[in-house]
From TrEMBL, chain A:
InterPro entries in UniProt: Sulf_transp_TsuA/YedE
Keywords: Membrane, Transmembrane, Transmembrane helix
Organism lineage string: Bacteria, Pseudomonadati, Rhodothermota, Rhodothermia, Rhodothermales
Taxonomy, superkingdom: Bacteria
Pfam families in the record: Sulf_transp (PF04143)
Stated name of the protein: Transporter
Residue ranges crossing the lipid bilayer per the database entry: 20-43, 55-77, 97-116, 128-148
TrEMBL record, chain B:
Domain of life of the organism encoding this protein: Bacteria
Keywords: Cell inner membrane, Cell membrane, Membrane, Transmembrane, Transmembrane helix, Transport
TM region(s), chain numbering: 12-30, 63-84, 116-144, 165-186
Any GO CC annotation of this UniProt entry: plasma membrane
UniProt subcellular location: Cell inner membrane
Membrane topology: Multi-pass membrane protein
Protein name: YeeE/YedE family protein
Family, per entry: Belongs to the TsuA/YedE (TC 9.B.102) family.
Length: 154, 187
């Protein structure tokens, strides 16, 4: 697999100060939802992996349903961005190895840390300063993946 | 109003609001919701080295997402101050609490067990494994799988992507393994 196929999108819209402020506002609302619904809580993640409450499954499940309706509506009605650009959603490259192995590795980390990347940021804001170490460690993990990538089976 | 918002938000409020982020970002600028990409942008921005995976214009493709992540941090500040939960303990189910007490968790205050997720906890073996090793696996695994909970479990499934379903099943295999076989050993 060539490296270019994995380059992120290069859309240039909204890189104005106003546009970036909009993204920050969306992120802020998202962080508030994350903390107030307690999906950032280690206890909630443990409760989920022990099948002791519907809370997390309800959140993920209803989020997927609402997001799915939104995405399918955008495709069906050919809705454009605020700047009038067509919306393209690139399909994930089909293979299974990387999704199984990467997915399981991520899951091991998710249950150990009790947080995935979004909650790491929210917890840092919530004053759990030791989560800065988790963030640096996750960046290190990403870096090591990038360095090993040419040698890893995908 | 503040009092009501300070309580635990039920799943049927929080879940749909999280789901709305996906079409909101697409309409705002054709952006696909996925937070772990920021870890890659952080590498590309600071220490790309000679790694091909980090040679791209991170400002062009990732600045919006880094700003979004900064917003999440600010949201965390607001949620834990202005909207701070009135009870010291969040109300997890009695079953989960009993199981966690069974593996030695005693402090149920706040969002994390503070004896493990603190600077002193970091120096202990279980704290180190959970924070440092856990964080490393989250970063490595997310990029290997091409996304995290947001990119695969929410955006990917919403777009009916087969690879995302495999990744999410993988997330749960790994999570169940650690929860039921590893945590009882290290805690």
């Amino acid at each position: 697999m060539s490296t270019t196929t994995q380059q992120p999108e290069h859309a240039e819209a909204n890189l104005t100060v106003g546009g970036l402020f909009g993204y920050m506002t969306l992120g802020m609302l998202f962080g508030i939802i994350f903390v107030q619904s307690e999906v950032v809580s280690w206890f909630r993640i443990q409760e989920m992996f022990r099948f002791e409450s519907f809370h997390m499954y309800g959140i993920i499940g209803s989020a997927v349903v609402v997001a799915m309706i939104g995405v399918q509506a955008i495709k069906y009605f050919d809705i454009r961005t605020l700047d009038g650009e067509p919306i393209r959603i690139n399909p994930k490259q089909w293979s299974s190895y990387r999704y199984w192995v990467g997915g399981i590795m991520f899951g091991l980390g998710w249950a150990l840390l009790g947080a995935c990347p979004g909650p790491i940021f929210a917890l840092i804001g919530g004053g759990y300063s030791v989560m800065l170490v988790a963030l640096l460690s996750a960046i290190a993990g990403t870096w090591v993946y990038g360095a090993l990538r040419p040698h890893l089976p995908h | 109003m503040i009092e009501m918002l300070s309580q635990t938000w039920p799943w049927y409020v929080a879940g749909p609001l999280i789901g709305l982020i996906v079409p909101a970002l697409l309409i705002a600028g054709g952006r696909m919701f996925g937070i772990s990409a920021n870890l890659r942008h952080a590498c590309a921005a600071t220490i790309p080295g000679r790694v091909a995976f980090f040679q791209y214009d991170w400002k062009k493709s990732g600045l919006w997402n880094i700003v979004f992540a900064v917003g999440i941090v600010l949201g965390g500040v607001i949620a834990t101050t202005v909207l701070a939960h009135p009870d010291p303990e969040i109300g997890i189910s009695a079953g989960a609490r009993a199981q966690l007490e069974g593996v030695g968790i005693t402090d149920f205050t706040g969002l994390l067990p503070s004896d493990l997720f603190s600077w002193s906890g970091l120096a202990s073996l279980p704290g180190f494994l959970m924070i440092v090793v856990g964080g490393f696996l989250v970063g490595f695994g997310a990029r290997y799988a091409g996304g995290c909970t947001s990119g695969h479990a929410i955006s990917g499934l919403a777009d009916l992507q087969g690879p995302s379903l495999i990744a999410v099943i993988g997330f749960f295999i790994g999570g169940l393994f650690v929860t039921h076989l590893i945590l009882p050993l290290i805690l």
